Amino acid sequence: MAATKLQVFVALMVVMVASRQPAANGAVTCGLVASSVAPCLNYITRKGPLVASCCGGVRSLNGAASSTPARREACHCLKTIAGSVPGINYSIAGGIPGRCNVRLPFPM
């Protein structure tokens, strides 16, 4: 049942990404955030290991969120996504940047 909910969530995020209007150059959208962190969902819900695609998504998102407004938007989107995924271990999630050797310009 939990795996089905996770699959539905990821499918909804993919639809959201596909249906969004193109963002302004350099803008961070919730679709971009969702697709970037989707590979991390099994890890942060203790259903799987940390995978390379999760680290790649975190690196990509960190690069895209290079301005203060973009970081705020990414943070807002992450909070929204986290609120819709049951069973997130926030300690594990907060440790992903360090495990992926990504330096964030702000604390998690």
Automatic annotation (TrEMBL):
Q: Which Gene3D superfamilies match?
A: Plant lipid-transfer and hydrophobic proteins
What InterPro entries has UniProt attached to this entry?
Answer: Bifun_inhib/LTP/seed_sf, Bifunc_inhib/LTP/seed_store, Plant_nsLTP
Record flagged with keyword Nucleotide-binding: no
Q: Which SMART domains match?
A: AAI
Asked if the record carries the keyword rRNA-binding, the reply is: no
Key words, A-Z: Disulfide bond, Lipid-binding, Signal, Transport
Q: What is one process in the GO biological process aspect for this record?
A: lipid transport
Bifunctional inhibitor/plant lipid transfer protein/seed storage helical domain spans which residues? 30-106
Q: Which GO terms describe its molecular function?
A: lipid binding
One Pfam family this chain carries?
Tryp_alpha_amyl
Q: Which CDD domains match?
A: nsLTP1
> Where does the signal peptide begin and end?
1-26
Q: What does this protein do?
A: Plant non-specific lipid-transfer proteins transfer phospholipids as well as galactolipids across membranes. May play a role in wax or cutin deposition in the cell walls of expanding epidermal cells and certain secretory tissues.
Q: Which family does it belong to?
A: Belongs to the plant LTP family.
User: Entry's PANTHER family?
Assistant: NON-SPECIFIC LIPID-TRANSFER PROTEIN 2-RELATED
**What's this protein's name?**
Non-specific lipid-transfer protein
Species per Swiss-Prot/TrEMBL record: Linum trigynum
